[in-house]
Fold:
Amino acid sequence: MTVTDLVPYDDALAAYDPVMGLEVHVELGTKTKMFCGCSTELGADANSQTCPTCLGLPGSLPVVNAVGVESAVKIGLALHCEIAEWCRFARKNYFYPDMPKNFQTSQYDEPIAFDGYLDVQLEDGEVFRVEIERAHMEEDTGKSTHVGGATGRIHGASHSLLDYNRAGIPLIEIVTKPIEGAGERAPEVAKAYVAELRELIKALGVSEARMEMGQMRCDVNLSLRPKGRQEFGTRSETKNVNSLRSVERAARFEIQRHAAVLSSGGTIVQETRHFHEEDGSTTAGRIKDNAEDYRYFPEPDLVPVAPPREWVEELRSTLPELPRVRRNRLREEWGVSEHDMQSILNAGAIGPIVATIEAGADAAAARKWWMGELARNANETGRPLEGLPITPAQVARVAELVKGGDLNDKLARQVIEGVLAGEGDPDTVVEKRGLKVVSDEGALTTAVEEAIAGNPAIADKIRGGKVAAAGALVGAVMKATRGQADAARVKELILAQLGVEG
Amino acid sequence: MSDSIIKLTAAETAAKIASGELTAVEVTEAHLARIEAVDEKVHAFLHVDREGALAQARAVDAKRAAGEKLGPLAGVPLALKDIFTTEGIPTTVGSKILEGWIPPYDATVTKRLKDADVVILGKTNMDEFAMGSSTENSAYGPTGNPWDLTRIPGGSGGGSSAALAAFEAPLAIGTDTGGSIRQPAAVTGTVGVKPTYGGVSRYGMVAFSSSLDQGGPCARTVLDAALLHEAIAGHDPLDSTSIDAPVPPVVEAARNGSVAGMRVGVVKQFRGEGYQAGVVQRFDESVELLRKLGATVVELDCPSFDLALSAYYLIAPSECSSNLARFDAMRYGLRVGDDGTRSAEEVTAITREEGFGDEVKRRVILGTYALSSGYYDAYYGSAQKVRTLITRDFERAFEEVDVIVSPTTPTTAFPIGERADDPMAMYLADLCTIPTNLAGNAAMSLPCGLAPEDGLPVGLQIIAPAMKDDRLYKVGAAVEAAFVEQWGHPLLEEAPSL
Structure:
């Protein structure tokens, strides 16, 4: 990998002002493709979900997916956009083997939604408004797999395999206006914008927006201008930046790289850049000298899309609460800090916690389990929280058992472990594993007496006033009862036996 | 016997099959024998599906034997332009680039023909990708005009019109982007109709220029054309541009031909330099006939029609440059130069170089240029404005008249090779037909006699407003009946025997 000259971040920001443009592609979760009836289900055998239309066979014609249009309008409305009264699809002409017709059916100068904004909240609670230029509908391309090369890129490959299952899957491309004034927080704004957009898309129910699955893909366009200058510098376009962290890193890297080039008297080449997950760097892709000519023209095989105003208003009235508004409401209800709420959001725990509270748990307990034991498990097993084999209702039941004194935290963790291991619901696990808090005072008293007798030196220390030493005896009792005793009660009994005030 | 079968109209044939006087198999065999006998000379067909046709015919006979009700065209043979996909049967669009391609699906028109029990004899020759007015641009060799085999049968649908005129089929399907149904009909003395744009589904019809292409019926009589029109027309959910409205009552109109009390327009722009004297003479006589039959003739001025040809030769190539991009050697059809060392881009380039003919390349290059950034507004954009003006000229005209008439094409069939190297001369063949494609309304060509100087057929074009296709048949049937009465027989009787 080539070494790129970078300027320290703070130095770059001292001299230059970054301007960003973010282009996000979202694969809609429609059952069928944008222009034909083929399934959009992921994971099918290559080329098994194709038909004459999405293969671009001679004579085939497209028909617009109405759910795709509805999803686009919903996204537009949630982004506070104007919704076009009349708009057309356009053909974007260029040759590439994974594009069956050698043109992409997209929208050009008549997007379905335009002129909106999205308010995003940064980690410290500051709200930054990102202006939206447009959101338009288009179709995805097929997927090329280059075989035989070292890097998986086409360079050096002996041949390529084409899978057209993805060809024609509906995409919404959301383009921001130039984001100015973010200064040193530009990378953070970029990340927060993509995160907020993802939450919004999920809340609308139009896509799962899973970046790791390619359902949401981001291009980061960035340029620098000397501080105080009005006109924009030359931009680079970093393509396919596919995680929130990468969006932030890509923006940061490009700021440092541009600053290095500019401060040494060089000029930025308008080009696409590849982002590298391993080290957060970018490398040069195609030169974009504006010579690229897609020869757009209105798609003659489709009729214009003219969403009736009443329908648009009907959709507007059914929009869910915006994620940021909802988060702030929940944060207040749960009584947590901005920072904690951010962690909850990052962990993908908002949904599970809300569901657990709805299932009867109190907010603190729901949060504790999802952000503690369960988050740890999800991390270790590389699954999203919502993909764990435990339901919010089951988590609520565990919380209920703890609250009622039937379980202590240690036992509760074992119950959760049992549920995750597929041993059944919490009550079954409690039953099978025999995980009940020992509340039989007689049995406890015996265990306490045995612990004192077995550790005379410690007992003496306690008698001598070192109450803290009681912990060791509590541990012994807990061990003897296999953790099934209530530790607080054990401590009381020990102190009472030794005649010490707690 | 078989000679009498092939001379029957589609309506007569269907009636004889329904009554049991003829079987569908007899009818099909008679036509297959005729193809066998004359098509080597005519070359109307690119592919004859003998087995498929006979299987369809047997199914019709079985239906009748089982007492099932037969449709109005059941058992009638048809020649299908090789631009419609046919599952399991080659579809070349007259191009080398699709040589050997077997489509996995039927076009909607193909499907409707099969559903109507129309027997598909095979696929007919055409100018490559429907680009041309003579069928000389076919990659598989030209088709001869049955009136004079050294002359062109029109184009792009020359195979379909020649098949009708040579009595190889009583019905055929064509497509009309700038006149490809009507001009071949005119020069072969047959009937051809370009329905209203959106009237017949384009699904499975290989695209040349999407906003202009329209499939339609070809036949030897106005009634046969109407029966076929009804069989293939109507809304198709697979074609977004297909019109979701009832099919105009074309058969009823064809059975009740009349022009009494109708206002017929004659457009000033459809005459002048370049029109053959005999064509003008027969056209003027047709106008006289219309007057005699009770129509009022109105002179019309449609100034933007003079711009139609220019606009057409920007719009059609622009759309075709994009429509034909898919022929890249990757998924189907011809692949040249894939020797294991060349890149995909190189193989695509070599294949397109070898697979497309000159006229196709000319239009792809023209269209690519017209859509380029910096030229789009001046070319494609201006052409679309002209298109709007032409549509307005028609709208204004149809406030004054019910139909417009004109010569279908300025000359009779020209000799094969005469205009092959002169694209402009070739383009002029569509002077009178193109405005209708640009505006999207309906038009018909039917025979109005032979030009005195060369004894070749002349076509009369009738133009109706969008979705008033029935008017074409009402007027066409009246004119046809009057001419046949005047001539004493259908015009094709005068064609030399092959």
